[in-house]
Amino acid sequence: MSRFKVYNIENALESRSSCSNLSDLHLIEALCSQDDDSMVYSEFVNRFLPDLIDNCKRKCKSRKIDEHIGVDIAHQAFERVRKYKSFKKDKIKIPDSTKAIKLYLIRITLSLFNTHYRKENGKEVSHKCYFDDIFDAIAVISNVEELQNKKEITLLILKKLNEKEKKVVFADIEHKRNQKYLPDEITETLSIDLNVKKDSIRRIRKRAIEKIHIAINEINQN
């Protein structure tokens, strides 16, 4: 719940000048809580679009695609924020709310970049993740009973991981499908969510891999 009452934000939006006086956090809260959002959306774009375009251009350079695609994706990200109004204040894990908003926008662009990649290549190119070994360890599924068995084995292995290890594994599964290395932004987000240093993510991942392979070996021996 915001420290400011809702009517304070609504009153602030009565004029464009007042809208510009809103903090970044109150600005996105207003955007995600109102249907008539033209003024607040314009202000939100003005504040965050330049940095997001720069970030997308850097991604284009690293992925060797045209910069105009990155610019288009940056604009699409803002359209998604406006359409789905999915930002949640209670999901913020860091004291710097402006940085949290930027990370939120970057997450959206990563999804859009992956969608673009799939469309351009006709199909999704999947980079194998260590967690795929779970599925390689299980016989080819030919009926519903075997499908249920695969699900149970997967859940059994996941139970051997603590919450931090699970989050790192799930991030790898989600993002390494379309690119070989985990983006720096995701590693940074993980470090914030888990309240650990970025270097610790590597150690958490290593422990998770070891646990997964031990579990797989136990399955294969049975």
Kindly summarize this structure in a few lines.
With 222 residues, this protein is mostly helical.
Describe this structure in words.
This protein is mostly helical and 222 residues long. The chain has two domains: 6-121, no CATH class; 130-221, Arc Repressor Mutant, subunit A (Orthogonal Bundle), CATH 1.10.10. It is built from eleven helices and no strands. The chain has helices at 6-12, 16-19, 24-31, 38-63, 67-84, 97-121, 133-136, 144-158, 163-175, 184-194, 198-221. Helix 3 (24-31) crosses helix 4 (38-63) and helix 4 runs antiparallel to helix 5 (67-84). The chain is globular, with a radius of gyration of 21 Å.
The shape is globular
Main sheet characteristics: none
Number of helices: 11
Strand and helix order: HHHHHHHHHHH
Count of beta strands: 0
**What structural class results from the helix and strand content?**
mainly alpha
Mean pLDDT: 78
Quote the distance from N terminus to C terminus: 52 Å
Identify low-pLDDT runs: 1-7, 137-144
Strand content: under 5%
Radius of gyration, rounded? 21 Å
The total tally of domains equals 2
Specify the helix fraction band: 55-70%
What are the SSEs and their pairings?
Blueprint lengths: L5 H7 L3 H4 L4 H8 L6 H26 L3 H18 L12 H25 L11 H4 L7 H15 L4 H13 L8 H11 L3 H24 L1
Structure keywords:
Arc Repressor Mutant, subunit A, globular, mainly alpha, 222 residues
